[in-house]
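Sharing a chain and its predicted structure for anyone who wants a worked example. Both blocks are below, sequence first, tokens second.
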Amino acid sequence: MSNQRARQLLDQINTLAPSDPLKIMNVCGGHERTINLAGLRSLLPDHLELIPGPGCPVCICPEETIAMAMAIALNEPVIVVAFGDMLRVPINTARGEPHSLEQARAAGANIRPIASPLEARAIALRHPTQQVIFFMAGFETTSAPTAALIAEGIPDNLLLLLAARRTWPAVAQLLNCDQPSFDALIAPGHVSAVMGSDEWRFVAEQHQLPVAVAGFDAASLLAAIFSVIQQAINGEATLVNSYPAVVTPAGNRHAQHLIDQTFTIVDSRWRGIGTIPASGYALKKRYRLHDAHIHFSKYSEQSHHKDEMPPGCDCAEVILGKAPPDHCPLYGTACTPSNPVGPCMVSDEGACRIWWSSGLHRQRRAKQA
């Protein structure tokens, strides 16, 4: 049924003819994976351009936070745990020094990959005499279970090194610039399930751009694409929920309560982009005993990292929707999944990694030939 619905939507989309080319940004690595795996770019008409946006928390995690996690792990008798993708994110370091958590681990640091916050607690309980540092980089969908972990009570020896970010302020910053890189928005389904579809209403009401929340199969994405195209043709700008089975206007109130209970909203840095107002989470004062930023502040103060991308890497342009992955001169040459130079080639939510895994490196080589 889903495939049949997707075919119907494709046929309908191909009958629509906006007066001008339409650039549609998606703000989720999961959406970008579906777009590539389903080959949607090749099936849609040429006047539509699908643009990947800032939907990868690993890609925008500040260099200084990664450097701090590495320094703590290399110099203190602690266990550092982080989601698997974070271990391979490269940062700029001097020649001969580790430039990722994975390399710090190879140099002797006790660094372990985990898949959920519950694993961080389990490791802390198994090692009660050691401090365990949970280095958490993620958006609202990861912040909510981390908030639940904190609210339920965590072991005394478990500290958190947060690089948690909020999604909508990044989109707001893109829209507030002089020349936004997109004409319509596909809002992320998982974030909207937590925070509610109404969080994206500002795109239509303040910026007069069509916006639709989408799920993660081709049919839901095509329904959202059809909606924003139709709005553009009719000169409308409204919020449409194309993922009603999971997303409600208000979202998950309990998850939001847990986030509000444990975190405070702060201005935060995004790698390659700079500081975005009210775009991050920090632990509230009542949880400062579990704040690794406070316990190990000397490693933050010693950091000279400027949150820059590596030389020649265009990850920042990709994250901002200003360039597709294969326009980067390093894409598919110096930078591949087995040897990532920039963070967008590391994570399954990074646009460069998704394009490469979908076979777009072969297309690039064919063009070069």
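Comments welcome. Residues 60 and 281 are 14 Å apart (CA to CA).
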